[in-house]
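Thread: "does anyone have the structure for this chain?"

Original post by V.I.:
We have the sequence but no experimental structure in hand. Need at least a predicted one for the grant figures.
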Amino acid sequence: MEISVHKKQLLIVLCLISLSILGSGCVSKMKYMQLEAGLHSAEKQAAYAQSRYKYQKKINMQLAGRIEKLELETRKKQSVIKLQKEIISLLDDTKKTIETSLKDQIAKQEIEVVNMEDKLKVIFIDKILFNSGSSNINNSGKKLLLRMAGFLRDNKKQNIMIEGHTDNVPLKERLKKRFAGNWELSTARAAAIARFLQKKGGLDPKRLSACGYSCYRPVAPNNTKKGRRQNRRIEIILVPIK
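Reply from O.Q.:
Generated one for you, tokens below.
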């Protein structure tokens, strides 16, 4: 009887120990699962943070590129503005000099000085430089051109374009022996001025250019005497060197 009771007691102890071991195993497994879930969540958060970092880095690089581009454009615009101010100042000074030097001819409407955006145009009207039908510069024209060459010679920041223009009246027969038409006459006059400014005026020929437009760029109607007079002209255009 005593042995049976002892056995029962021993069985109860073994059951209790088994339950304790099983309970301990369940707790450890549950804790492991919790840690594993936490690790997985941390890995997801780390991956998301890494993705956000790469995205932000890409955006920052793009913004840095745009800022650099804007700074470059700003510097270019500032440079252009500075250059435009210098050109305006240069043209204003040149215009004042020409208007002072040629004031008598301007008053008589034989010469006109016109601003053209970043250029300055000096227009010699009708016979002030050439006699009718001639490509030889007359004496008064030589004096005026030498006067102009005087203040253009040292001003090396401007190129000089010379344009010849005529009215639409065909050349007389006696002139056709020398010029086939107004194309040739207008071109010959422009070339004669370029040559004179180089040879007599001392201007660098690299700054000079000459062309003729015949009657195809009129500034007034050719059906009046006054209009034809305005169209018979030489234009000397001063172009700042950029």
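V.I.: this helps a lot. The first strand starts at residue 111 and ends at 116.
O.Q.: and The chain has a mean pLDDT of 85.
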